[in-house]
């Protein structure tokens, strides 16, 4: 690599200073394609976290007073650096997370676009004036909430940190970011982009550590005014309990179990080509991954056969290889968990059409793309988020049956529907319980649109104007 090498030795960024392993514990970072170490990441001490909190408090007091135009300029310069360093950022993401390099390049491009969108929104944080008798005024103001404790997952190691940093910085908040310890280099490289773009050192802090210890320390502090979390439902519930002690403003983007409703009037071949590619994107390790495929009875067997054939043909390998279509899973825990879910589904009557086993490729964490048909509702995979390369297929008879099954679980993040019937499209958009619904497409993430879920998949939104609004408080000022 040229501009950015894989270096996590100075992985903590506190009060404008990069800190290394001296006096700190470390954690190995593994390459999921080989299982071999990439480097040792320093973990924050209690003193480091206290220092980060103090810096965030100072940073908020200064950054909240900076003009929206200046905040926007920093975001635009950061976006330009992300684009300039795009290939290096993509390689970092592939090295530590495993996704194919072409997917990592797309992630980096979307990251730059999100920064640019938030730069534009920074100057459009409007309040309003209410009608009152002559000589009096009532104002509604939107002001930054304060220092943010932000936690993000490993599956999009470039995009996830920016989803936390960008709207907070646009709103005028300071941030303490704790990304995943399994994919730290991408976050470190992103912080360097912000630093090189001129963001003051007290405004954004980067810490790594034992997740529970870091979250308890940051959320117990009166300095922290907002929690922003992307991750699993159980961890999200745990963090919400911690945040409740100070009635902290929170945004939670939690797990999903994406239903896909495929009706017999869809363009079947086009639908299959689209869904197979999207299902196995990032080895299925995507919170909005299509997972439960509910297919109308008339096309069920054709769909299942076509899906399995396409899945079996995918090229699996190191994400840095140009012909790889699906890389390894991100860590050694995932193949074992996926294997157990498949075994349980088969015991409950599922037909295995392809895959179902770990794939030998050196010491990496590879797992074959797996397609199961006739999956029982009692199977664990039909009720718990698999977060891996498993497609679960079941038939349905009527639109009402399909909607009922889509809404059966307590999750409601992303959902997908494929039908050419316009009346049905409207019904599905109205009745499916999800924060995001894609009809005849699979793209749910756009910089200008809210990204978030309902039910146990969380609340609040990232991206769009809503992402910045969730970093603001609303204040009414009445003047007589």
Keywords:
single chain; 480 residues; alpha/beta; Aldehyde Dehydrogenase, Chain A, domain 1; Aldehyde Dehydrogenase, Chain A, domain 2; 2 domains; 6-stranded mixed beta sheet; 14 helices; 38% helix; globular
Description:
The protein has about 475 residues and is α/β, with parallel strands linked by helices. It has 2 domains: about 10-255 and about 455-480, Aldehyde Dehydrogenase, Chain A, domain 1, CATH 3.40.605.10; about 260-445, Aldehyde Dehydrogenase, Chain A, domain 2, CATH 3.40.309.10. Helices cover about 40% and strands about 20% of the residues. It has 14 helices and 22 strands. The strands form 6 sheets. It has a 7-stranded mixed sheet, sandwiched between helices. Helix 9 (about 270-280) links the parallel strand 12 (about 260) and strand 13. Helix 2 runs antiparallel to helix 4 (about 100-120) and helix 2 packs across helix 6. The longest helix has 22 residues, at about 100-120. The radius of gyration is 23 Å and the shape is globular. The termini are far apart. The model has no long low-confidence stretch (mean pLDDT about 95).
> Percentage of helical residues?
25-40%
CATH H-level homologous superfamily name of the largest domain: Aldehyde Dehydrogenase, Chain A, domain 1
Number of strands: 22
- Mean pLDDT, rounded to whole units? 96
Note the overall shape: globular
In terms of quaternary structure, the protein is single chain
Share of residues in strands: 15-25%
Calculate Rg over CA atoms.
23 Å
Can you name the CATH architecture of the largest domain? 3-Layer(aba) Sandwich
The major pleated sheet works out as:
7 strands, mixed
Number of helices: 14
Structural class: alpha/beta
């Amino acid at each position: 690599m040229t501009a950015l090498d894989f270096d996590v030795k100075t992985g903590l960024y506190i009060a404008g200073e990069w800190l290394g392993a001296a006096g700190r514990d470390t954690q190995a970072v593994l390459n999921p394609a080989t299982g071999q170490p990439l480097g040792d990441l320093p973990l924050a001490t209690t003193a480091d976290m206290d220092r980060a909190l103090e810096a965030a408090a100072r940073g908020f007091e200064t950054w909240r007073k900076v003009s929206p135009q200046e905040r926007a300029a920093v975001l635009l310069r950061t976006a330009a650096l992300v684009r300039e360093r795009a290939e290096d950022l993509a390689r970092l993401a592939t090295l530590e997370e495993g996704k194919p390099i072409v997917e990592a390049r797309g992630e980096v491009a979307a990251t730059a676009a999100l920064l640019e969108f938030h730069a534009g929104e920074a100057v459009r944080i409007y309040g309003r004036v209410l009608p009152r008798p002559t000589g009096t005024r009532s104002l509604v103001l939107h002001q930054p909430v304060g220092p943010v404790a932000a936690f993000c997952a490993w599956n999009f190691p470039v995009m996830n940190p920016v989803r936390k940093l960008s709207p907070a910085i646009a709103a005028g908040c300071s941030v303490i970011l704790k990304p995943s310890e399994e994919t730290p280099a991408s976050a470190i490289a992103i912080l360097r982009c912000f630093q090189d773009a001129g963001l003051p050192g007290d405004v954004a802090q980067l810490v790594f550590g034992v997740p529970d210890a870091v979250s308890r320390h940051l959320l117990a502090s009166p300095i922290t005014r907002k929690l922003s979390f992307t991750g699993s439902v159980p961890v999200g519930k745990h963090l919400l309990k911690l945040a409740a002690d100070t009635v902290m403003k929170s945004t939670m983007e939690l797990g999903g179990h994406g239903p896909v409703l495929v009706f017999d009037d869809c363009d079947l071949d086009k639908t299959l080509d689209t869904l197979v590619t999207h299902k196995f994107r990032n080895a299925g390790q995507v919170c909005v991954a299509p997972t439960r495929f509910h297919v109308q009875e008339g096309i069920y067997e054709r769909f299942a056969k076509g899906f399995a054939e396409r899945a079996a043909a995918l090229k699996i390998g190191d994400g840095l290889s140009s012909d790889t279509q699906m890389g390894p899973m991100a860590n050694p825990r995932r193949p074992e968990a996926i294997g157990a879910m498949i075994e349980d589904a088969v015991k409950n009557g599922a037909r295995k059409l392809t895959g179902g086993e770990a794939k030998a490729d050196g010491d990496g964490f590879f797992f074959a793309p797996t397609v199961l048909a006739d999956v029982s509702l009692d199977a664990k995979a039909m009720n718990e988020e698999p977060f891996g390369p498993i497609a679960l297929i079941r038939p349905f008879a009527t639109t009402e049956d399909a909607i009922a099954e889509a809404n059966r679980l307590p999750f409601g993040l992303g959902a997908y529907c494929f039908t050419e019937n316009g009346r049905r499209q409207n019904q599905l958009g109205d009745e499916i319980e999800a924060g995001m619904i894609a009809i005849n497409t699979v793209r749910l993430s756009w910089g200008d649109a809210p990204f978030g879920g309902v039910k146990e998949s969380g609340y609040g939104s990232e991206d769009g104007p809503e992402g910045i609004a969730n970093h603001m408080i609303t204040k009414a000022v009445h003047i007589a």
